[in-house]
Structures are given as C-alpha cells and as structure tokens.
Please model this.
Amino acid sequence: MSDSQRSHEATELNIDGEGSSGGELQAYKQTYPWADIAALELNQRLAGAEAARRAAMVHRWGAIGLSKATGQYTVLRNLRFVDGHRLTQSEIGRRLNVTSSNVTRLIDGLEEDGLVRRSADHADRRVTYVELTKDGEILAERIVPAVIQFSMDVAQIFSPEELQTLLSMLARLQTHVESLDESGGG
Model:
C-alpha cells in the first residue's frame, strides 16, 4: 500500500474525529465518491490556519494600540526596510501582490493618517513614490518588532526540525499551487 493510500485511509478513519470539518467532508465524500478527503481537509486547514493567524495578529496589534489594516502594516514594513524608506507605488503593489487599485486604497488610508506621503518622480511624472513620514517611521518601528515576536510565538509549537520540515513542505506546496495557476489545471 502506498503512503498516499495509507494517508487517505487514515483520513477516512478520522473523518468524524477532531476538527469542525469532519461531517462536512463526509458529505462531500458521499456526494462525490471520487473526492480525496485528505486534499479537501488540507485546503480547509490551510484556510483555517491563515484565518486564525490573521485574527490573532490583529488582536495582538490591537492590544498594543495598533489598529490599522494588515495590508497597511505590510506597506509600512516594506517601506521601513528600504533605503530612504521610499518605494514606487507600483513596486509596493508587486511586493504585496495586489492590484494597483488596492495599493492606491491602502496608501490613501496611510496618507490620510499622516504615515506616508506621495511624490511624483521629476523625470517621469507617471511614477509616484511613497515614503514614510516621521510618524510612519515611528509606527513602523513599533510594528516590526511586534510582527517578529508574533511570528516567533506562532512557530514556537514546532521543534526546529519540525519547523524546517514544515517550511520545506509549504515551499513545495506554494510552487505547486503557483504552477496550477499558470497552467490552469493539474
């Protein structure tokens, strides 16, 4: 019996066990007998873990008096780590992997709060730079250590070996999913 078959059988045996998706996944299996329950559970657990991680991060930030949206913090962190604390608006979009309208919305909010300022490139008026203001630098200095500590708190449940294994598996998963997106299928 292959590892895949063993994993599949183990998942079927635990389908009504721990977790909130057991009954729901059983319904999928009854309706679609060909469905791989382990694959469905993987997607649900990834989504659930990310939702829980985001909620915990927002809660943690709220507890230390930070209340901006996650995307806005990501902009501030990106600006914090570049020379001159300045990037083009399009570079911010590339780094965050979001549309230009999303970048504009994020930067609008930060600009309204006095955390960033925009300036046009003197040589090419189509290029807009975004840079941290003094208040933005101060806030970024609070955010970065908070994110580092939060990341360490999330990872603390794993041994160093487990963490390296998980990181390797997640990198492999990310590469595979990106190839699905590019190819349009499996």
Summary: The domain at 68-143 is CATH 1.10.10.10 (Arc Repressor Mutant, subunit A). The chain has three domains: 1-63, 68-143, 156-186. Residues 1-20 have pLDDT under 50 and may be disordered. The chain has eight helices and three strands.
